[in-house]
Amino acid sequence: MVIDCHTHIQGYKGSPDDRTGYLLEFADRLGIDNMCLSLGTSRDYYPTPEVIAESNDMVWAEVERYPDRIIGFCYLNPCYLQDSLAEMHRCIVNGPFRGIKLWVATRIDHPNLDPIADKAANFDIPILQHTWIKVTGNLPDESEPRHVAALAERHPETTFIMAHSGGNWERGYKTIIEHENVHGELAGGDPEMGQAEMAVRLLGVDRLVWGSDAPGRSFASQMSKVTGADLTEDEKAAILGGNMERILGL
Question: What is the CATH number of the domain that holds 76?
Fold first, then answer.
């Protein structure tokens, strides 16, 4: 099984269904079985609860259209804590979503994330947190790997996926070595040689998952980080889907 842990409705043209169909067309060419989908069409860094609900409704509709292919992740803006907890209940307890997606509204080590992390552990779902280390400087509330490590230390029972592994993946991997509840992720960024191999050496193969960040990046370029790596076929299979299959309880 191949599971892309990181895709979005954003990008391309047309309705959300058109956009998901576009992704699935190319996923089929590469043998991708499932895609974890999050975010709607808004690019607002600080979305209101209304925009959050609208975004999740878009994803919910795609999960219902393609129940065997699409896995929904519940998008949250933790600046609105009570609304976030209610949205988790709506989408996860009463809905089909199997994870949480966080972007740039607030850093993940903010105190508002503590009750969200507690709920995620209780629901046995992962938190997928965007991380980046930018030479030009991050957005004001954009998380780096060190922020993920800080919350992970406070919540050892919660499963975290460090999206993009900070962009500067060597620094990202080293930041989370001691936090076994944090998984490195291969989505986004250029398909550089040695990225997957270093993660396996530093974290172990069970703590690395694959994603593309499509449509912002292509499936093929991102998959090449694994298929072209100097790893065994069993290690590649674990990264491309086996680890996410376990994390999601599929």
Answer: 3.20.20.140
Strands (E), 123-211: 127-132, 160-166, 182-185, 208-209
What is the torsion angle, in degrees rounded to the nearest 10, for the CA atoms of residue 219, residue 183, residue 61 and residue 124?
160
Counting the structural domains of the chain, the total is 1
Write out pLDDT tens, residues 188-212. 989 999 999 999 999 999 999 999 9
Please tell me the distance from the alpha carbon of residue 95 to that of residue 82, in angstroms, as a whole number: 18
Q: 151 is in which domain, residue-wise? A: 3-248
Instruction: Give pLDDT tens digits for 120-163.
Output: 999 999 999 999 999 999 999 999 999 999 999 999 999 999 99
Q: What separation in angstroms does the CA of 211 have from each of 44, 71, 226? A: 23, 13, 10
Distant-in-sequence, close-in-space partners of 192: CB < 8 Å, separation ≥ 6: 169, 225
Strands across the sheet containing 70-76: 3-8, 34-38, 70-76, 99-102, 127-132, 160-166, 182-185, 208-209
